[in-house]
TrEMBL record, chains A, B:
It comes from Ruminiclostridium cellobioparum subsp. termitidis CT1112. PANTHER family: HTH-TYPE TRANSCRIPTIONAL REGULATOR GALS, LACI-RELATED TRANSCRIPTIONAL REPRESSOR. InterPro entries: Cro/C1-type_HTH, HTH_LacI, LacI/GalR-like_sensor, Lambda_DNA-bd_dom_sf, Peripla_BP_I. Keywords: DNA-binding, Transcription, Transcription regulation. Residues 2-56 form the HTH lacI-type domain. GO terms for molecular function: DNA-binding transcription factor activity; transcription cis-regulatory region binding. Residues 6-46 form the HTH cro/C1-type domain. This is Transcriptional regulator. It comes from the Bacteria.
Length: 340, 340
DNA sequence: TTGAAAGCGCTAACAA
DNA sequence: TTGTTAGCGCTTTCAA
């Protein structure tokens, strides 16, 4: 591997001039330019980004932390961020946290050592890591938090309006005449399930349908785990309870598929006997039969906007602190008007 | 941000001693250790990996190039590589090439400038970039090529035996009594489709069923584009031709779903009227109804083995040059014995 | 338009 | 067990 010295020697100039030519930072004589370029070609020289990063105190790198890269939702977001960053000359260091707060913290510290210019955390573990962690980090370097939110006016948050998505989906079901809607949550106390339940309840309340009880014995909510398999089992073993409802609203599409399969295995048809609504609009939902009505999370623009934001923060441009993206209802074939 | 000088001053020792403590490279007095650690804590010091990389000529980074991060197959591979690398203290720089040879080349050059310790290319564009490109790269630094192969005894290749997978799938169809099998290819002249067609033809030949023709008018092969939508259309507009066959073997699962949907919309049922076989075993295939019989590519171990290989290459350990992983037949419900 | 030299933060050879 | 010093490959003042 040749370095800038070799090039300078070969071209018969000083390394300063080579550097200037490389970076276009000062005028260089045309003939000198030619000589340098020839030397570069001859030696197959490539500037060392590490050395450059050391002196410039800028690595043109952004760190991304993702909970599960295998989760369909996230690669799409990573892709959006990565596209924006690459276009501006930044590279991506990607770390998979397994949705573990400790791993996330380790990744952040590693990023700091690596002198990344900015950090994007997708679905940060705000249930595990205290707000102070993120606040302090946000003071240290450009930071963007994606798809979660807590109250802080200095941090840049970019997320989908899941609450409104759940609200719209519930309204749609209500408009179809369903009065007893069962909600299948994906986890007990996560940010995402709480937000969706809020939207769900808001819609019920607006029609005077919200039962006034403490949340403990909410009997129109069942808790599953975001997987198709376990939701299948959950429905099968709670059929008696399920039968009291005419529509089932699931916190993600995978669970909606589990529900449909369970219902079928009990001899029911969707949407004939039950309406089933999903959330996320993963690619399966369009391919499945029946096509699953769901809430689209606008994943692509989530990534694009996040990538845009981190680049702007790094460039010290203004960025809106709190960007909430619209979700939209995707109507396919898994819901129908209630039979009287 | 404090540096090693600040720590040394604070602890009242030289920077060498701090460095030794940090790297555990030489014995340091217990009290000195304590003083240094206190200084580190007080100043919240983190070693600068860039500076360290410059002098050590090692960045603990591996570059990964992936054609489409949104393609379901690839995140799984990336995950495997990333797990292995992280466990050994390496970070991942990820670049999405859009399966474009030029982008891939740019990414490689960028990696070289960034002084990565090794490069893993998933599905390298060997149809566009000449073998010489990879051979030269392989002489420059540790390189692993995943899921493609060309004849070179110095490069480390890790790939699934797609040929054998296609062979086994075809044999299975043959064993069910199907004599007229239609193959849906995903592209015209790609490595992957050629390899699968070879396996397909080998099975036919072994039963004396291979038509002796030039490949131009192979009338048991239809060319699609790996998407569900276009395969749907292709089947619809070629129904007359399709009807001459009793089984359809698709080069990926998405196309299998497109085929099933098209068949349904023509009033047929799968597997009653046609048997349909996929390839890849993406997660939809288990959830779809009917469950799609397919060839599993062993994606997880593809990533794991690749990650392992690049680390070993970097550590100058021995690595098998040519690792082919077994594919396996996953039998679900989309194929049945032919009706007489 | 060009060059000499300092220095980015760190490691490692050499010396003590 | 510790410190001095050179230098990794580059950018950037300062001076010419």
């Amino acid at each position: 591997m040749s370095n800038i010295n070799d090039v300078a020697k070969e071209a018969g100039v000083s390394i300063t001039t080579v550097s200037r030519y490389l970076n276009n930072s000062y005028p260089v004589n045309v003939n000198t330019k030619k000589a340098i370029q020839e030397a570069i070609n001859k030696l197959n020289y490539k500037p060392n980004a590490i050395a450059r990063g050391l002196v410039r105190k800028k690595t043109n790198t952004v760190g991304i932390i993702v909970p599960y890269i295998t989760n369909m939702f996230f690669p799409e977001v990573v892709r959006g961020i990565s596209d924006q960053c690459n276009a501006k000359g930044y590279d991506i260091i990607l770390v998979n946290s397994n949705s573990d707060g400790f791993e996330e913290k380790k990744a952040v510290e590693n990023f700091l050592e690596r002198q990344v210019d900015g950090i994007v955390i997708i679905a940060p573990k705000i249930e595990k890591l205290p707000p102070s962690f993120y606040r302090k980090l946000n003071k240290t370097l450009p930071l963007v938090l994606v798809n979660k939110y807590f109250n802080d006016k200095d941090i840049v948050f970019i997320y989908n309006d899941e609450r409104d998505g759940a609200f719209k989906a519930t309204e749609y079901l209500l408009d179809l005449g369903h009065k007893n809607i069962l909600f299948i949550s994906g986890s007990e106390n996560s940010y995402s399930s709480e937000v969706k339940i809020k939207g769900f309840n808001k819609a019920l309340k607006s029609r005077g349908l919200l039962q006034k009880k403490n949340s403990e014995d909410n009997d129109n909510i069942l808790i599953s785990d975001y997987t198709s398999e376990n939701t299948f089992k959950l429905i099968k073993s709670n059929m008696e309870h399920v039968r009291k409802h005419s529509a089932i609203f699931c916190a993600n599409d995978l669970m909606a598929i589990g529900v449909i399969k369970a219902l079928r295995s009990e001899g029911y048809e969707v949407p004939r006997d039950f309406s089933v609504m999903g959330f996320d609009d993963i690619s399966i939902s369009a391919l499945y039969e029946p096509g699953i009505s769901t809430v689209s999370q606008n994943i692509t623009s989530l990534g694009k906007v996040s990538g845009d934001a981190i680049i702007k923060l790094i460039s010290k441009e203004d960025v809106v602190r709190n960007q909430v993206l619209n979700t939209s209802l995707i109507i396919r074939d898994s819901c129908s008007r209630i039979k009287e």
